[in-house]
Amino acid sequence: MTATTTAPLAATPARTVRQPSARLRAWATRAPLLPALVFMIVVTQLPFVATLVISFFDWNALYPKARHFTGLDNYREVLTDADLRHSVWTTVLLTAGVVLASLVLGLVLALLLDRRFRGRGIVRTLLIAPFLVVPVAAALLWKHVLYNPEYGLFNGLLHYVGGPQPDWVSRTPLLAVEASLVWQWTPFMMLILLAGLQSRDQQQIEAARVDGASDWQIFRHLTLPHLRRYLELGALLGSIYIVQNFDAVFTITSGGLGTANLPYTVYQSFYQAHENGLASAAGVLVVIGSIVIATFALRVVSSLFREEVSRA
Amino acid sequence: MSVLRRGGLGLLAWLAGIVFFLPIAWMALTSFHSEADAATNPPSFTAALTLDGYREFFGSGGGASPWPALINSTVASVASTLLVLLLALPAAYALSIRPVKKWTDVLFFFLSTKMLPAVAGLLPIYLFAKNAQLLDNIWLLVVLYTSMNLPIAVWMMQSFLAEVPVAVIEAARVDGARLPVILARVVAPIALPGIAATALICFIFSWNELLFARVLTGVVAETAPVFLTGFITSQGLFLAKVCAASLVISLPVLAAGFAAQDKLVQGLSLGAVK
Question: Is A168:A154 a contact under the CB 8 Å cutoff?
């Protein structure tokens, strides 16, 4: 019980009178943070700085002696190389296509799940499952089990209705990769949008309904504006993950048939072609692209975050 | 009319659930078929069931055994998750319960590192590992997976620890409880479900990772997703084996994901959505 009175008394004068002790205490507060902070700076920031430096060198790992500084040559080469330019375009198409399609599908599913019906929990579980398949396994599933022209499930089902038997991957390679990713990412979007739907102000919706608003009017004027930031968040987080996608491209097409995106190209240019300088320049370009997305993402996250903090 | 429509929409939701789950159900069914039955067109839904695909996957047919890869993945995922918790818990404490000055800035620094594409750091990490003789070493992956998951964990745990009412902690302190006691008796019971969910999500991301594992490991430290890349090129009749492999390797993720279902959104949206 004595601590009741001494603790606050001891704390107050120390802060005002003894300066070093206050500084000590500030460091004591910071101390638990430092290991994580130092770890992150060393493991994530230093390699990036190294990438930046390497990107200014002409450096093929097979000819290490010929390494020399070339300024912006690698960037010029990356930006003028037809293959690399194509991979930038592929990355944009892949990311935008997957994000938009899974966002729309996710919205529809979230709206369906936002109402009471028998077995809602089971349906939710069924819908989440695709997101919980290991990405390489999911890509293998689509490549061999669904898309295979001879014994894949798609052509098997088409067989019943006497439909054509297309070779999905070689006919529409990018679409084939995108479809598998949409399947995996729709549950992600659905979960975020469902959380958004469930944080709506129910009283406001009831009031609108009492005033005679139709379902569509409620959706258009209440639900959609409320969902806007959740849609943005889903789109931005989805973009950040899908811009970096490697697994699906690597597995389904091995980067062939014009589906090589930037991460695959970076992987290929140093892992197979041993062009360290070029790979780094391409890597820096991926980062610049991501920073553009990330700036918006951070803004959305911080506005949601501030709302949470002020609500608490 | 309204009842009819409501029933219709429920049916539609069920239909959507089944369509999305169908590929997984088909994968599971195929994994229990013989290779000959797995590769028919039209598909054989009612063929006899067998465990041959699983036997084949676990190496009875003379192929490489998946056990070393499964063990490597377990080591990499569990060890990195523990390391993440060790680093993230004190950090989250300093960002929520006794916040440092400008704690939101620190929080956003962690988040911004997550937005740096992994591929950008890959080359220097590869060169470093090569020089330090760390290629094909599972502990290198442990360190990298820790850095990959630390921002997510800090964000999630910050939001879970912030849910512990300050008044309760103050009351315990006033009653003379020391920090370890406060952490164990007051903070832990409230934050534990959240911490568990965080750990499960970190486990999933580590288990799934391919790019780093593919580039930085070889024979010894190969992980389960790298093992799966062995199935990229077709090898005659091997569908049942592929399905068995994909399913077995996805099982830990499915289990962890369903266990963390309620907190999954919070983790995936880095704590922005509750």
Answer: yes
Complex ipTM over 0.85: yes
Residue A59 lies in a domain: no
The domain total for chain A is: 2
Mutate to test the interface with A, among B113, B119, B228 (most CBs of A within 10 A): B119
Q: Is residue A54 part of a domain?
A: no
Residue A108 covered by a domain? yes
Phi, psi values for residue B80, rounded to 5°: -70, -35
Q: Scanning every residue of chain B, which has its alpha carbon at the shortest distance from the alpha carbon of A305?
A: B272
Measured between CA atoms, the residue of chain A closest to residue B227 is A136
Whether residue B116 is predicted with pLDDT greater than 80 in this model: the reply is no
CA A159, chain centre distance (Å): 37
To probe the interface with B, which of A144, A180, A262 has the most B CB atoms within 10 Å? A144
Q: What are the tens digits of pLDDT across the range A227-259? A: 888 888 888 888 888 988 899 999 999 888 888
Domain around B140: 67-231+248-268
Residue A10 has pLDDT above 50, yes or no: no
With CB atoms and an 8 Å threshold, state whether B120 touches A284. yes
In a domain, B199, yes or no: yes
Cβ atoms of B234 and B119 closer than 8 Å:
no
pLDDT, residue A11, reads 42
- Sign of the C-alpha dihedral computed for residues A281, A243, B209 and B261 taken in this order: positive
**Does residue A306 register a pLDDT over 90?**
no
A132 in a domain, yes or no? Answer: yes
* pLDDT tens digits for range B204-213: 999 999 999 9
pLDDT at B105: 84
A276 vs B123: CA distance, rounded Å: 7
Which residues from B are below 8 Å from A2, CB to CB? 176
State the residue range of the domain holding A6: 2-44
Q: Considering only CB atoms, which chain B residues are within 8 Å of A254?
A: 232
Higher pLDDT, B146 or A10: B146
Q: In the structure, what pLDDT confidence band is assigned to residue A57 with cuts at 50, 70 and 90?
A: confident
- The total number of residues written for chain A in this structure: 312
| pTM (two decimals) | 0.87
Q: Does residue A259 sit in the same domain as residue A141?
A: yes
Question: Distance from A30 to chain B by nearest Cα, in Å?
Answer: 6
| A147 and A234 together in one domain | yes
Q: Do A95 and A167 share a domain, yes or no? A: yes
CATH code of the domain covering residue B88: 1.10.3720.10
Cis peptide before B42 (omega within 30 of 0): yes
Q: Do residues A23 and A108 share a domain?
A: no
For residue B212, being part of any structural domain is answered with yes
- Are A89 and A6 members of one domain? no
Q: What is the dihedral of CA B247, B249, B251, B254, to 10 degrees?
A: -100
Which of the four pLDDT bands, split at 50, 70 and 90, describes residue B15?
Answer: very high
Residue A69 has phi, psi (to 5 degrees) of -70, 130
Q: Is A267 on the interface with B (CB under 8 A)?
A: yes
Quick one: closest CA in A to B251, which residue?
A133
> Do residues B157 and B270 make contact, with C-beta atoms less than 8 angstroms apart?
no
